[in-house]
Write a structure and sequence with these properties.
alpha+beta, Rieske Iron-sulfur Protein, 2 domains, five-stranded antiparallel β-sheet, four-stranded antiparallel β-sheet, 33% helix, rod-shaped, binds FE2/S2 (inorganic) cluster
Length: 180
């Protein structure tokens, strides 16, 4: 009988969690959850930032490398001739010193398309009769500056031109030529 009484006593003495402690425990749970969420958000932001930087660097690298298009074989452009590539709005010219240059077919006067006069070995603009030599240098006004040119490289006997980067120039120089 006495034993039963003791058990009842023990049950009564079980410590109940005071309401203040319950609130504290809930608060710390929320604090921890918010902490984890903030950490996750931070990690995600860092990841996004790094991805963005990586994409930017890739873009810059690609831009620096250029976007070269295969235009023709070097054998298709004999010395002293030009190879029209109208979809790219340019001519690939094989100069007498064996260098190659890709010149824009857009006249630097008012933007008409120039034509190659094979007999004269000159470019002629049909609009106001500007004339350019095979290097794109002005022979006859009203155009006042040479035709723009494009970065060109030769790989495995193929002529490749970066169509996305026309270069404006005031003069011709040998550095604008590429040799096979
Ligand atoms: S547009 Fe070519 S000469 Fe005027």
């Amino acid at each position: 009988m006495k034993k039963k009484k003791d058990t009842q006593k023990v049950k009564k003495e079980e410590p109940a969690v005071p309401p203040q402690e319950q609130t504290t425990s809930r608060r710390s749970f929320f604090r921890r959850t918010w902490g984890w969420l903030a950490l996750l958000a931070g990690a995600e932001l860092t990841f996004m930032g790094l991805s963005f930087l990586g994409a930017g660097r890739k873009k810059e690298k690609k831009k620096a490398e250029g976007n070269f298009t295969d235009i023709a074989s070097v054998t298709e452009v004999p010395k002293g001739s030009v190879f029209p590539y109208r979809s790219g709005r340019l001519y690939v010219c094989h100069l007498e010193d064996d260098g190659f240059i890709a010149v824009s077919l857009v006249c630097t006067h008012l933007g008409c398309s120039i034509d190659w006069d094979k007999d004269k070995g000159e470019f002629l603009c049909p609009c106001h009769h500007s004339m350019f030599d095979i290097r794109g240098v002005v022979l006859n006004p009203p155009a006042t500056r040479p035709l723009d040119y494009y970065p060109l490289k030769i790989e495995n006997g193929r002529i490749l031109v970066d169509l996305g980067r026309p270069v404006t120039r005031k003069h011709f120089s040998k550095s604008q030529e590429t040799y096979a």
